[in-house]
Amino acid sequence: MTYNTILIIACAYLLFTFLAAFLTQKWPLLQRLMSENSLVYALSLTVYCSAWTFYGSVGRAATTGLGFIGVYLGPTLLAPMWLFMLKKIIRISNYLRITSIADFISSRYGKSAKLGALVSIVCIFIIIPYISIQLKALEFSFYLLQDGNFAKGTSGQGAAFYFDPSIVFVVIFAAFAIVFGTTNLDPSEKHPGLVNVIAFEAIIKLVCFLIGALAIVYFIFNGIGDIFTKAQSKLNLNALSVVGNGSSSYQSWVIISLLSAMAFLFLPRQFHMAVVENNSVRHIKKATWLTPLYLFAISLFVLPIAFAGTILFDASIEPDTYLLSIPLQQGLSGIALVVFIGGLAATSGMIIVSMISLSIMISNNIFLPFLLRIKKQYTYFLSDLNSRLMQLRRVLIVAVMLLSYGFYKFFSINYSIVSIGLISFAGIAQLAPAIFFGMYWKWATEKGAFAGFSVGIILWFFTMPLTNLAELGILDSSLLTEGLFGLSFLKPTALFGLGGMDVVSHGTFWSLTANCFVLITVSLNSKRSPLEISQSDIFLNPEKYYKSENPRAYVFERRADFEELHRVLKAILGEKKVKEVMLQYYGGNVLSNFPIYADSGFINLVESHLSGSIGAASAKILLNHVVDQKPIDPEELISLLDETYHVYEYSQLLEKKSKELSDTTQELKEANKQLKELDDLKNIFISNVTHELRTPITSIRSLAAILGKYDVEEEEKAKFLKIIDDESERVSKLIDQVLDLRRMEAKPSLVKSAFQIDELIRKIVSGFEEMKHQRAINMQLEPLKIYTDREKLQQILINVIANAIKFTDYSAGKIDIKAFASKNKVFVEVADNGIGIDEKHQKKVFERFYQVNSQGENKHKGSGLGLAICKSYANAMGIDLKLKSKIGEGTLISLEI
Amino acid sequence: MNKKVLIVDDEENILISLSYLLKKEGYAVKTAANGKEAIERFRQFKPEVVLLDVMMPEKDGFSTAREIRQMDETSDAHIIFLTAKGTSQDKLKGYTSGADDYVVKPFDNEALLDKIMDKFV
Question: What's the predicted TM-score (pTM) here?
Answer without folding.
Answer: 0.65
